[in-house]
C-alpha cells in the first residue's frame, strides 16, 4: 500500500513539474555592468589583523601613537550575463532573471594613521617684530585591503510598470552570492612630511610636502564570499519605436538598488554592510 502511495505521489509531482516546465518561457536576455558600493560596518581590530597577517613586516612594526581610522567603502564590480523567464501568462506577473556574475572585489580591512609635529624654525618679522613658528609634520598611514576575483549567481523578480512603453520604470526583489578566488591581502605604508606655519593670525597653509615611496606587501589569503539582497529600482528605455523589429526589442536600462550584504573573508570574521548596487546594461526581448 505504501509503495502505491509513493508511486501516485511521484506521478503527481511529475505531472506538476511537466506542467510548470511547459509554462516557463524565455522572454529576454541581457548583459550589464554592476558596481556594488557598501560602507563597512567596522574596521577589523589590529590584534586580529596582526594574527591573520603574521607574515606582514609592516604590521609587525611598532604601532605606538597610531590611531585606527574608519575603513573606506568597499567595492564589488564586474559583469552580469543573464536570461529572463516568464513563469505565467499573467501580463503583470514578474520576469525571473537568472544570471552569472564575473568580477572583482575590494574590501578595506583597516587603516592606521599617525601624525607627529616637531618644532622646525622660528621666524621674526624685521618690520613688525611679530613671531611665527614653523613646524615639521610627519604623517604615516598603514592600510590593509582584501582583494579577490569573484564568480557567483544572481536571481531577481522584476515587475514592470508598463513593459510596452518607450520609457518604463520597474522594481522587484533580488539576491545573489559570489565566491572569492585568487584572493590576497595588500598591506601598504605611506609616509610623507610637510611644513606648517603658526602665528597669532592662525595656522598657515602646509607646503613643501615631501613624499616617500609607498611600501607595500602582498600576502595570500584563503577564500570567502559575499551574499546580498537588494531592491531593484530601475529605468528602462526602448531604443526603437517599432516593438516588432530588432531595435524595438532592444533596451537600455539603469538601476539604483538599495542593498544589504554579508561578507566573510579569510579569518576576518563575518561583517554586515549596507550600501547601493548600481547596474546599467542592455537587454533584448525575444
Instruction: Provide the gyration radius in Å.
Output: 28 Å
Order of helices and strands: HEHEEEEEEEEEEHEE
Assign an overall shape.
elongated
pLDDT averaged residue by residue: 83
Strand proportion, as a percent range, falls in over 45%
Total E-strand runs: 13
Class derived from helix and strand content: mainly beta
Q: Give a short account of the largest sheet.
A: 13 strands, antiparallel
Q: Helical proportion?
A: 10-25%
- What distance separates the N and C termini? 48 Å
Provide the domain count.
1
Low-confidence stretches at least 5 residues in length (pLDDT < 50)?
5-17
Q: Given the structure, what is the number of helices?
A: 3
Amino acid at each position: 500500500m505504501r509503495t502505491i502511495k509513493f508511486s501516485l505521489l511521484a506521478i503527481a509531482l511529475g505531472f506538476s513539474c511537466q506542467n510548470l516546465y511547459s509554462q516557463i518561457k524565455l522572454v529576454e536576455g541581457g548583459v550589464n555592468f554592476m558596481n556594488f558600493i557598501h560602507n563597512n560596518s567596522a574596521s577589523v581590530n589590529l590584534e586580529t589583523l596582526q594574527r591573520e597577517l603574521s607574515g606582514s613586516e609592516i604590521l609587525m612594526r611598532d604601532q605606538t601613537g597610531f590611531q585606527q581610522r574608519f575603513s573606506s567603502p568597499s567595492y564589488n564590480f564586474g559583469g552580469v550575463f543573464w536570461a529572463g523567464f516568464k513563469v505565467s501568462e499573467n501580463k503583470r506577473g514578474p520576469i525571473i532573471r537568472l544570471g552569472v556574475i564575473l568580477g572583482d572585489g575590494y574590501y578595506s580591512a583597516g587603516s592606521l594613521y599617525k601624525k607627529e609635529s616637531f618644532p622646525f624654525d622660528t621666524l621674526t618679522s624685521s618690520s613688525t617684530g611679530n613671531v611665527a613658528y614653523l613646524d615639521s609634520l610627519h604623517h604615516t598611514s598603514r592600510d590593509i585591503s582584501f582583494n579577490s576575483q569573484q564568480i557567483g549567481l544572481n536571481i531577481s523578480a522584476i515587475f514592470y510598470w508598463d513593459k510596452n512603453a518607450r520609457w518604463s520604470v520597474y522594481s522587484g526583489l533580488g539576491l545573489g552570492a559570489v565566491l572569492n578566488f585568487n584572493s590576497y591581502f595588500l598591506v601598504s605604508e605611506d609616509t610623507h612630511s610637510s611644513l606648517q606655519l603658526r602665528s597669532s593670525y592662525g595656522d598657515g597653509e602646509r607646503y613643501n610636502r615631501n613624499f616617500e615611496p609607498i611600501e607595500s606587501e602582498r600576502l595570500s589569503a584563503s577564500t570567502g564570499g559575499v551574499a546580498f539582497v537588494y531592491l531593484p529600482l530601475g529605468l528602462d528605455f526602448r531604443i526603437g519605436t517599432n516593438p516588432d523589429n530588432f531595435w524595438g526589442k532592444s533596451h537600455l536600462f539603469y538601476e539604483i538598488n538599495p542593498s544589504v550584504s554579508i561578507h566573510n573573508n579569510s579569518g576576518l570574521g563575518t561583517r554586515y554592510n549596507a550600501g547601493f548596487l548600481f547596474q546599467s546594461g542592455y537587454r533584448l526581448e525575444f
